């Protein structure tokens, strides 16, 4: 089973879109709110070298944002878990 973490902030449409996609694929994930948890923010910055959410970490792959070009990569990264 893949280790999946989604770093989010409240009221973020892209964050919600990533979570919906993962749920639709039956992928279990841990959500970390970087606005409320400074340790999660530091962790996200270390892994992705960005300060914007969402950041999705699937295994050793890191995706930031949820632009059209990120969706295929996220789906491909989920394949080993299915």
UniProtKB/TrEMBL annotation:
SUPFAM superfamilies: Thioredoxin-like. Residues 4-62 form the Glutaredoxin domain. GO terms for molecular function: electron transfer activity. GO terms for biological process: cell redox homeostasis. CDD domains: NrdH (cd02976). It comes from the Bacteria. InterPro entries: Glutaredoxin, Grx-like_ET, Thioredoxin-like_sf. This is Glutaredoxin 3.
């Amino acid at each position: 089973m893949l280790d999946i973490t989604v770093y989010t902030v409240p009221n973020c449409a892209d964050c919600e879109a990533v979570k919906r996609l993962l749920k639709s694929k039956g992928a279990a994930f841990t959500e970390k709110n970087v606005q409320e948890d400074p340790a999660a923010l530091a962790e996200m910055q270390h892994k992705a070298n960005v300060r914007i959410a969402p950041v999705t970490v699937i295994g050793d792959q890191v995706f930031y944002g949820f632009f059209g070009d990120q969706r295929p990569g996220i789906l491909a990264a989920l394949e080993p878990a299915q």
